[in-house]
User: Fold Intracellular septation protein A from Thermomonospora echinospora.
Amino acid sequence: MLWHALPRFAEGVVAPVAVFYAAFVLLGLNGALVAAVSWVYGGIVWRKVRGQGVPGLLILAALGVTVRAGLAAVTHSPVVYFLQPTLGTLMVSMTFLASVPLNRPLARKVATDMVPMPEAFLRHERVHRFFLRISLLWSLVFAINAAISLWILFNESIGTYLWVRTGLVAALGAVAVAVSVLGFRRCLRHVNAEPAG
Assistant:
C-alpha cells in the first residue's frame, strides 16, 4: 500500500509545492497560479494520453484549483489561494469527528475504499472500535494540520508556508499513518487469535 501511495504523494503533494514555488520565485504570483493549474490539467492529459482513467477526485481537484487560482488572481493574494484548502482540511477534520458519535467511522469508509475487506470482519466489535479510534486520530491530525497551516499562512512568508508547512504536515501524516497501520496490525492479531464463532 505504501509503494502504491508514494508516487501519488509525490505527484499530489511534493511536486505541486515545488512547481508553485519555482514559478512564484521566477514568474511572480500570476505565473505560479498558471503553473499550479497547468500541473493539475497536465496530470489529466497525461493519464488520457497513456489510456488511463481519470479519477473523479482529480477532476474535482482541477476544478477546485481553477477556482482558487481565479480568486487569488482577482485579489492578487497568494493567501487566498492557500486559505481555501486549509479551510477544507478543517472541514475534513470535523467530518471525521462527527462520524464517531454517529457510530459510522469515516476511517472505515476510507480504508475499505482503498482495500476491500470482508463484511464479517468489519462487523467485529474490536474492528469497529479500532475504526472509531482511528477516526478520532485522523480528526486530530487534520485539525492540527489546519491550525499549523493557518498560523504559518498568516505569520510567515509564502516560501516558508510552502516548505515548512509541507514538511510538518508530511511528518504529522507519516506518524498518523504509522500509528494507524500498527494499530490495525494489533487489531488483526487479536481478531485472528479469537476462536472461530
Observations:
- The chain has seven helices and no strands.
- Residues 1-76 form one domain.
- The mean pLDDT is 85.
